[in-house]
Amino acid sequence: MRSFQESEDFVKRLFKSYYLKWRGDPPREYHKREYAFMLSRKGEMIRHISFENWNEMKEFLVKNVPLHVFYSSAYYLQPSAPEMEAKDWIGADLVFDIDVDHLYTSCKEDHDNWMCLDCNFNGKGVAPEECPSCSSKKIESKAWFCEKCIDVAKEEVIKLVEDFLIKDFGFSPSEIEIVFSGRRGFHVHVESDIVRELDQRARREIVDYVKGTGLVLREKKKKLLIPPLNAQGWPGRIARGVYEIINSRSTHDVAKLLCLKKGKGITEIEGQLKKILSKLEGAEGYWMLEGEACKVWLKIAEKAVLNMRCEVDERVTTDIKRLIRLPETLHGNTGLIVSKIKMKDLETFDPYVHAVAFRKDEVKVKIVSMPKIKFLGQEWGPYRDTIVEVPLGLAVYLICSGNAIISDEERRHHAKGDI
Amino acid sequence: MILSKLDAAKYPFTSLAAKIVEKLETELGVDSILSPNSEVLRRSIERIREAIYSGVTSIYMKDLDVEVLSHPLSLFLVKAVNNPKLLNVYAEAEKNRVFVNIINEDVNKIALLANDGFNWHVKVEKERIFLRFDEYLKVSVNMMDSYWKLVNRKLEEGYVEVTKRDLCRLIAEAYRGKIIEVVMRSKENIHGGLNAVIEELSKEVKAILPPTKIQESVALNEYNPSALPPCILKLMSEADEGKNLPHMARFTLATFLISIGKRPEEVIDIFRRLPDFDENKTLYHLRHIAGEIGSRTKYMPPSCATLRTFNLCPSSDEICLKIRHPLSYYNYKLRLLRKK
Ligand code: SF4
Ligand SMILES: [Zn+2]
Ligand SMILES: [Zn+2]
Predict the structure, then answer these.
(1) Which phi and psi (to 5°) does residue A35 adopt?
(2) Contact (CB<8Å) A318/B157
């Protein structure tokens, strides 16, 4: 295992060079935040640290070269108190986490795989809860992300920020910060006095709103009122979602979506869909839907909600004392920069280009396995048990994620201190 | 729009009410307000009685000064009687009083009252009324119906559309919360001259508001420390450290542990380190709570809402968000643990 240790040392040296030039901005009211660090892969987390002066942060980073750096979304009167109770919570930012792990993407079948550590049974795609062969829960999964994955995550971010946070919740773009998580997703931070003091229950309501959880499509014993397409908030979202579904599919597909048996009442449904569509297009205000068409509407609306909702991790948002990655630091499992992204740059943001910390030099690594990846604009892999010369950034990525070690040749190189 | 003295009497949460109280207190002097034949004292006691007998307080129109002054004094008496049930009943009755009055006001006046009393941002546009979402959430989370869930409301640019009735209910509910907060926080000492009054009131309250009877029989006879909710764990460790726990905390611990099947003789050990521990007394109380002696009613532990009110809820985990009673927490967690 010597080479693993040496690989880690290699990474640490590079991390140190990154932090020597580091100029990350402090989070808002940084001296009221708690900071936490992980210095090594297996080591414990060092917590309850606070900084009176932001220069001390840089000094800390250079001196200790942590693999992971976190700060609290919460503001405390005593951020360095060792017990949570004694910290004196005064508020917290509103944080959302959008992660490819929680999103369905078809490409996961192509680039993710898993293996049972007990019986070696393995498979492609998302890892199951337990091994289908021996029911063991010790499953190691190798998850990657590709352009497709990141595009799906970006779409969720745009939906969250533009549709929900700005239009519905009325936050101004200057209160919203988008951050690449350093691995497979994005964090969206809202720093606003309005949300600061909200408790867990209020935050849970916000998450439920964004995810469409608990949405009542028809109030009991009430007439079904259909919102106009341009209605704000969820009513408009539902109307537009239904419109989209009907408009972009054949009647046959809609019938299938509604789980209707083949051929059963298809002409009848066709008529109802046409009626709904033309009413939706013409209506300026709410209108009433009656009869059998109500059932069709409600079924399509259910699907529409699934399309229009935003997939955020509710645990992150409802936790008012959460530690999150500090922007502009390195993610120890990828070596990528936890990067702040401006809304206008999100569309073109490519983590394998824009979040790469080490852009110069190439280095030889022994790769255990990796799928095909586009890194720094060039395609690499797939590789399996081979020694390849790759860009330094990719080498760090592979070593940090446990998919490669530094090659023997390169080690000798280093011993001589050539880098 | 200007608020009148009648408004101050109807809506004790307004800044005008506070101003009048302050002025009258200096004019009349505390001694006269608290003297045995004081009108204000008489009215304050009456107000509390109205709450426990009818669930809603009235407005004493004969003398509005007295009415306005009776509000803080009533709260003071409620605090002194120190009965958690009374606090809830009183706050509920006051909430009802505010609701029945405010629902008859003009929309613009309601908006003014919300802003003056709670600093709320209410927008009235033609026929529509809006409240800023954070202010809406702070109160609506206490309302259980799906009607109040944010996802079922119209939310536009940070404002939730509400009906006039919704807004009145939210204000009344906010007022209820404020009463509880004020009473919980106040640290004023009991005025010596009031002792007799308070004692009598205490007796009356106890007689009228019997302790909650066990509603659902909890068939939990398994003690599993890893399934205990955060509130109970915290209280247990505080008891272990020998902290002087307030009455409500002791009551919660005792009722909870007994409800999940611990015997009084076992529970007593937890209280052993408390500074004022008295073996016989404690055992007597515990057996009483367990329904073994006395009225034979088993006592239920308080709900999460009540624990929150008394600042006994550290509400720190996932399961807490799903439940409303510490016993449900325990049930839920037990099932989870069994599955594993
Ligand atoms: S939410 Fe309920 S169960 Fe959880 S800690 Fe608070 S009071 Fe206890
Ligand atoms: Zn297996
Ligand atoms: Zn992918």
Answers:
(1) -120, 150
(2) no
